[in-house]
């Protein structure tokens, strides 16, 4: 049954007051969560997820160990917990997982940034709410901003081929915006940790660590 709430009105506003291409407010919390080696709480609007990363650590099972080679096998466990759900859940999970891995100190080739988009009649929409996802054909696109590579395109509904190219391009552009938010959060977390390391005689080392952290962030 279709929704009784108007998805997009004549003035170009959606049911939550946003414009077509406007993303919901995004908040990121990279503070320590329990015993995890890295974690991230990411909120897109009213959708919120917690991702916890444990590892890397040595593989526990002997079958995973290769004894006749100079090879290191490690395990990385990723746990995703949905705290609130109001659409674009896959988008939130991907973005939070990327941040949790970075927070755990695991080297990545690039960030992976995801956005969900849909089409109302002939009007593309980005960062869908639960209401919009239920009513509209939609697609989730994940990109690597540094390389421009697409790592994921997934659809659970049918989307007309004439509309796919436009929503695909818009989602890719929106991924770059989200990348900026994610990168800023990681830089802020790094600065906070460096500051907490100490002061006085340790400041010089802290400044070096902060500069090293900035250099690594620039690689992304």
Task: Provide an overview of this structure.
There is one protein chain. With 220 residues, the protein is an alpha+beta fold. Helix content is 34%, strand content 27%. It has four helices and eight strands. The strands form two sheets. It has a four-stranded antiparallel beta sheet with strand order 1-2-3-4. Strands 6-5-7-8 form a four-stranded antiparallel beta sheet, with helices on both faces. The longest helix is centred in the last third of the chain and has 36 residues, at 161-196. It is globular and about 65 Å long. It starts with 25 loop residues before the first strand and ends with a helix. Mean pLDDT is 87; it is low at 200-206.
Q: In summary, what is this structure?
A:
This protein is α+β, with helices and mostly antiparallel strands. The protein has helices at 89-103, 130-135, 161-196, 203-219; strands spanning 26-29, 38-44, 47-58, 74-84, 113-120, 123-126, 138-144, 149-155. It has a 4-stranded antiparallel sheet with strand order 1-2-3-4. It has a 4-stranded antiparallel sheet with strand order 6-5-7-8, sandwiched between helices.
């Amino acid at each position: 049954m279709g929704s009784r709430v108007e998805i997009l009105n004549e003035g170009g506003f959606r049911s939550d007051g946003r414009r077509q291409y406007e993303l919901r407010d995004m908040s990121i919390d990279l503070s320590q969560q329990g015993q995890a080696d890295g974690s991230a709480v990411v909120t897109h609007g009213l959708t919120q997820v917690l991702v916890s990363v444990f590892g890397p650590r040595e593989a526990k099972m002997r079958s995973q160990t290769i004894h006749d080679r100079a090879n290191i096998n490690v395990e990385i466990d990723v746990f995703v917990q949905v705290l609130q759900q109001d659409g674009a859940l896959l988008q939130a999970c991907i973005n939070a997982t990327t941040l949790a891995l970075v927070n755990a100190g695991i080297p990545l080739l690039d960030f992976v940034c995801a956005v969900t988009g849909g089409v109302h009649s002939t009007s593309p929409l980005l960062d869908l709410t639960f209401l919009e996802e239920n009513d509209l054909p939609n697609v989730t696109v994940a990109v690597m901003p540094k390389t421009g590579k697409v790592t994921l395109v997934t659809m659970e509904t049918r989307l007309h081929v004439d509309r796919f190219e436009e929503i695909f391009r818009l989602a890719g552009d929106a991924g770059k915006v989200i990348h900026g938010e994610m990168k800023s959060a990681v830089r802020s977390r790094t600065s906070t940790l460096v500051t907490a390391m100490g002061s006085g005689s340790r400041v010089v080392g802290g400044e070096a660590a902060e500069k090293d952290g900035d250099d690594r962030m620039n690689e992304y």
